[in-house]
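Problem statement: downstream parser choked on a complex file, so we are re-checking the raw output for the pyridoxal-5'-phosphate run. The parser issue turned out to be on our end (a line-ending mismatch), but while we're here, posting the original submission so the record is complete.
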Amino acid sequence: MIPYGKQEITEDDITSVINVLRSDLITQGPVVEEFENSLAHYCKSRFAVSFNSATSALHAACSALNIGHGDMVWTSPISFVASANCAIYCGAVIDFVDIDPQTYCMSVSALKFKLEEAKTLGILPKVVIPVHLGGNLCDMEAIAILSKSYGFKVIEDASHATGASFDGVQTGSCTHSDITVFSFHPVKNITSGEGGSALTNSSDINSKLKLFRSHGITRDQNEMVNKKDDPCYYEQISLGYNYRLSDIHAALGLSQLKRLNEYIEKRNRIAKNYDSLLKHLPITLQNIPAGTISAFHLYIIRIDRNKVKNDIGLVRKLMRKSGIGVNVHYIPIHLQPFYANLGFKSGDFPESEKYYMEALSLPMYPTLTIEQIEYIAGKLGQALSQ
Ligand SMILES: *Cc1c(COP(=O)(O)O)cnc(C)c1O
């Protein structure tokens, strides 16, 4: 089976991890710090705080923006469930903003409309979490303008977008957001095995993220309530978790980060190959707006239901039968039983639901060969014409 995504591990990666195993510190130590510094440097943000997953980083991000019981948080229905769950962990009320039918990211016009409505009702969101679907970027400039006029904070869920940029500005620079979150799960653009990171330019948010990651415990005199002249003294000043990344994981992430630019180039080249091989088929491709360099974590197509006899379920089945591990990103979050129990229902976000009836992610990873791409394109042609 050709999977839809997979990691590449080099001898350098292995050596880098082994070096940590031979050292004295294997949990959070100097390599975590080096990884964080390298990430911040790469993205041109002031701070990067690593976590044991992007899910933990999203949870910490919501907490750092003071999300609490009853606060409103909005995200996109077309995302991994973690984009919404993070707000619920903090006791927030979640709601969704429908997607743009061309970019598959949060629609700015739908956001504007919903904000106007919410303003009249007095239930404006405290935080909005746009999701850079597949590595394509949301219109962050427009979202930032709205955040100022309606007074909400912004967390970019950039789990798919490590290495993406807009007009030369790197995703993660937090130019138009308060916090940006990356994932280093093995299917994502670079991996640390499991892992994630939250980037910010605010030193206040940076301190809150660090406290949240480690039990709310500080060893920094300036943060302490009681100051003691004792090198063993520490204080718990808030409630936190154990969400730390280990040096073992960070060593893999640090080594992979060196190849991120190369990966983005390869993914963009693969996307171009797909584009030209698929252009005669009854499908639509994701619109990547001018100025955006997508990280192409995913290569998503939508079938044209007017021209294709098979429904999407059958197309997905036929592709899997041919040994092609196609997938769907994503089943709309609001249709998941857990969210349906909160009151969401079919019809709430029509563009997202329509997308789900047409979308398919084709295999996309840096080591995918041109022969494999041609094979996949051929099989897709057959699956659509049967
Ligand atoms: C993968 C992913 C996450 C969660 O990442 P983990 O590192 O696995 O916790 C969150 N949001 C999106 C959009 C993702 O794709």
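For whoever reads this later: Residues 285 and 301 are 5 Å apart (CA to CA).
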